[in-house]
Amino acid sequence: MTKPKIDAMCDVLIAGGGPTGVTLAVLLARRGVNVIVVEKEADIYPLPRAAHIDHEGMRILQEAGVADAVMATARRADRYDFINAKGDVLLRFEGATRTGAGGWPSANMIHQPSVEAQLRKALASAPNADLRTSSEATGYEEHGDCVVARISGPDGDYRIQCQYLVGADGARSPVRKAAGISFNDLNFEEPWLVVDVLVDDSSRLPTANLQICDPDRPTTCVLMGEGRHRWEFMIKPGETAEEVCQDSFIERLLEPWDVKGAVRLERKAVYTFRARIAENWRKGRVLLAGDAAHQTPPFAGQGMCSGLRDAANLAWKLAAVTKDNADPALLDTYQPEREPNLRATIDMAIMMGKTVCVTCPWRAWLRDAKFKLARRLRLLPTAPPVYPPISQGKILTGSPGAGSYFPQFISSDGQKLDDVLGLEPKIIRRDDMGIAAVAPFAAQIGEWLDAHGAEAMLIRPDRYVFGTGTASALKSAWGAINATTPDERSN
Questions:
Q1: Which DSSP letter does residue 482 get?
Q2: 3-class SS at 264?
Q3: Hey, what's the torsion of the CAs at 16, 18, 24, 29, to 10 degrees?
Q4: Residue 403 is part of a domain; what is its CATH number?
Q5: Do 440 and 328 lie in a common domain?
Q6: Angle CA(54)–CA(205)–CA(305) in degrees, nearest 5?
Q7: In a domain, 84, yes or no
Q8: What NCBIfam families does the record tag this protein with (predicted)?
Q9: CA nearest 184: which of 289, 295, 284?
Q10: Of the residues 55, 60, 81, 109, which has the maximum number of CB atoms within 10 A of its CB?
Q11: Is 38 a member of any domain?
Q12: Across-strand partners of 410?
């Protein structure tokens, strides 16, 4: 096939300028990768979608350089309660304000457009990154050593040549469709009305995130970023999108909450909550990330978080392949490493959704009875589960701790470990505990090494543990992937 005329070139082209795509672009640019992002919309979508980022997501935003700005307007809920129609607590998750393993509060309620604005600001400061709005990747051709993507832009159609194309272009992903990749449907599909409001009197609103398990109208009520709140209402059979989006209909739905005069309507939209996973996340030089690769019901608040984890996993691997001559087979580890974690988050979201979305009064009564008994017997979890570690991929299988998520320790003066680790893989040995940069974290790192009976560990750039053992053995094992030589000391 003859290669068409090329209008622009880059190492990685990302289709989709949402949180996943721009985060990936920032992480790549910080590693010296030349990246172009094309986004079909002219500007950031002005109204909120995602409302939650967990501690792991915040750690990724820390690497992107925007975590502090995001946290400035984030809020924390007292708890996450599942309540029946009578107001009885069926399930309660606490500890949202505690620091999670990622070194940030466990649950952070955010305003998505504000997060995206900070990410784009970070991207704009990178000299090797380019964001092209009002532009969409409509198709591509693969030419052995490159991909040539067709772009529809404000001044007409043109082509961009890249080493790799990442489709982070949403649930309807043109890139996924062009690649001929289909979805596996996980059999959860429910239409809901989402209502976002601006808050004038926060004293009249709940301080906890709530799932109202009322068979008459299952409802979600959650905090968002500063000055905002959200309700979600399950749409009943026979109700239409046009009907439920009428202001008068929404006003009736909000009457039981007694918030008239305390809030102002900002957005109303009907969404179908789905659970789906793409069969393949890589096809040749094309990869998928975020909603293009998977869709998660919102009940566990893991949709945006999952996209950020995709970005963190892909960024160092794409950089290793495009800049450091790593074997392209490294990219084949992306889906095997991410999919088990993703499936666990979807399973949790579906479990929560099925708990909430019971509309038969008899089934609701039976559900309530089971939860009340389990709660009385203390058989229910009090916090969301820890999602599974990496079990296959680029880890030193069999070594203690391999594939686990390495905690971001915080020193007594508030310094975070990642600010010492940097962007490259890092070997930390017991002998390093006296080095000035590591010393503030020596006790915590030492405890981790003790718990795993290890002399040294190698931490991957995405903060998962490659493996444990001797420093020389770890360096040799890591070198097998032909990536950047890991630092052996933190200076």
A1: T
A2: strand
A3: 80
A4: 3.40.30
A5: no
A6: 15
A7: no
A8: PRK06183.1-3 (NF004829)
A9: 295
A10: 60
A11: yes
A12: 416
What range does the domain containing 320 cover? 8-46+53-72+111-184+276-350
Residue written as token pair 């409802």 = 219
**CA angle 48–49–54, rounded 5-degree value:** 105
Contacting residues for 473 by C-beta, under 8 A, at least 6 apart: none
Q: Are residues 346 and 398 in the same domain?
A: no
Residue 216, amino acid: D
Cβ contacts of 187 within 8 Å, gap of 6 or more = 275
Q: Read off φ and ψ for residue 255, nearest 5 degrees.
A: -55, -45
Element counts in the chain: helices (H) and strands (E) = 13, 21
The burial of 323, by beta-carbon neighbours within 10 Å (0-12 exposed, 13-18 middle, 19 or more buried), is given as: middle
Query: Shortest CA distance to 75 belongs to which of 298, 227, 299, 265?
Result: 227
The structure tokens listed for 478 are 């890591």
Rounded Cα gap, residues 300 and 386, in angstroms: 12
Q: Which of 345, 417, 485, 470 is nearest to 102 (CA)?
A: 417
Indicate yes or no: pTM above 0.85: yes
- The residue among 410, 450, 462 whose CA lies nearest residue 101 is 410
Is residue 40 located within the same domain as residue 169? yes
Residue at 491: amino acid letter: N
Residue 132 tokens read as 């092209």
For residue 272, give the amino acid letter: T
Which tokens belong to 482? Answer: 């032909």
Q: Are residues 37 and 159 in the same domain?
A: yes
Asked if the structure places residue 150 within a domain, the reply is yes
In a domain, 315, yes or no: yes
